[in-house]
Design a protein that fits this description.
Structural class: alpha+beta
Radius of gyration: 19 Å
Order of helices and strands: EEEHEHHEEEHHHHEEHE
Number of helices: 8
Helix content: 25-40%
Shape: globular
Distance between the termini: 26 Å
Length: about 290
């Protein structure tokens, strides 16, 4: 049914403000600028003649994914309940995991969004449908259903940027698993989530200068849990032409931002020498 593998892209949070919990949802209010990157999982979908779905993962980062409880199985169940998949139709889904897991790169949410879009025939989902899927799968799902570059105004509202930005990033994942639930639970200081529309039409330099004033609310928690994170961020900051470094999401992946591919490629060599056992790559915005 799906002859060519679907691309399930990773994301980074260029900044992340975490507010207090919303009473109705018991989830933290958040605000973020998130870009999708050209680092992606590959998903193949094929109808089968069995009485159930068969979901399999392979690749470098496949070992840490639950076989019986994962975002794809949850999505398939929800898709049937909403009528996007006929109840008697079952599928083989094969996923090559190129995106590190428990890293803050959104791999699980991206996988879910990819098959939701596929079975919805790439039609725009209603706000009600997005809320339905996000309630079970997680709020990060919204980042992958709107645009490749989005401003998340609050927990429930995301807006695609009118202007697309081209940036390069050195990504470093130290093979340390960060549980989103655990990292959030240790956060004691919360931001006030303001009603603002930002980063619409800025030049690349102006955007970078504004982002330098932002933070990731969870970064101090991640550093307190894994002190090596601070060392990684310092090395990225010292890399020539790196404009700033930050943890993405709830970690443990870190990134440094560059304007030119050549600068990022040269910086990657330095970072790989410093951290030879870590996953280090260059990614770019899509």
């Amino acid at each position: 049914m799906c002859a060519q593998a679907l691309r399930s892209y990773s994301k980074i949070n260029l900044f992340l403000d975490v507010g207090k919990k919303i009473k109705k949802t018991k989830l933290h209010n958040i605000q973020s600028l998130a870009f999708l990157l050209n680092i992606y999982d590959e998903i193949q979908i094929k109808k089968n003649n069995r009485s159930k779905d068969i979901v399999k993962f392979y690749g470098q980062f496949s070992n840490c994914i639950g076989k019986n409880n994962n975002s794809l199985k949850q999505s398939l169940s929800l898709l049937r309940k909403r009528g996007f998949i006929k109840k008697k139709h079952n599928y083989n889904i094969l996923v090559k995991k190129n995106i590190p897991v428990f890293a803050g790169l959104g791999g699980g949410s991206s996988n879910a969004a990819t098959i939701i879009r596929y079975f919805a025939k790439n039609k725009a989902l209603s706000k009600q449908e997005i809320n339905y899927f996000s309630k079970i799968i997680g709020s990060d799902l919204r980042l992958f259903l709107k645009s490749s570059q989005i401003f998340q105004k609050n927990l429930h509202e995301v807006n695609g940027l009118k202007k697309k930005y081209k940036f390069y990033f050195i990504l470093v994942y130290p093979f340390l698993k960060c549980s989103t639930k655990e990292i959030y639970s240790k956060l004691k200081v919360f931001k006030k989530i303001k009603d603002r529309n930002i980063y619409q039409g800025d030049s690349r330099i102006k955007l970078i200068n504004n982002l330098k004033l932002e933070t990731n609310s969870l970064e101090t928690v991640v550093i307190s849990k894994f002190t090596i994170i601070e060392e990684i961020l310092n090395e990225l900051d010292l890399t020539k032409d790196c404009h700033f470094s930050r943890v993405t999401g709830s970690g443990s992946a870190c990134f440094g931002l560059f304007l030119k591919k050549k600068s990022a490629d040269l910086g990657l060599r330095k970072i790989k020498k410093k951290f030879p056992k870590f996953w280090c790559v260059v990614g770019k915005t899509i």
